Amino acid sequence: MKTVFLRCILCGIQVSKILSPLADLAPLCEKDGQPLFPARRYLMSSAFLDAGTTRDSITRDEILLNGGDILNSQPGGTRNGC
Question: Please, what's the b/e burial string for 20-50 (b: 16 or more CB within 10 A of its CB; e: otherwise)?
């Protein structure tokens, strides 16, 4: 299983923990206040949408991750490195 982490495209700072792909969509949780899927995992939005889940704000070209896996950002402030 290939692991990845995300970097800011402008400054190169690491903006996520090391992540593994979410291979099985069974652990998806859509309860309010709960993470969509487990920590240390990522999911391409196209796979999420192809599974029949719809969200108005998600396009097919995004990487979804658990909010607890975001690094070097502050709530309400800069969320993407620079």
Answer: eebeeeeeeeeeeeebbbeebbbbebeebee
For residue 6, give the 3-state DSSP assignment.
coil
Token representation of residue 47: 């796979």
Rounded CA separation 69/58 (Å): 19
- H/E stretch holding 48: helix 45-50
Residues 2-61 pLDDT 10s: 899 999 888 888 999 999 999 888 878 888 888 888 999 999 988 888 887 777 788 889
- Measure the CA dihedral 11/61/75/77, to 10°: 50
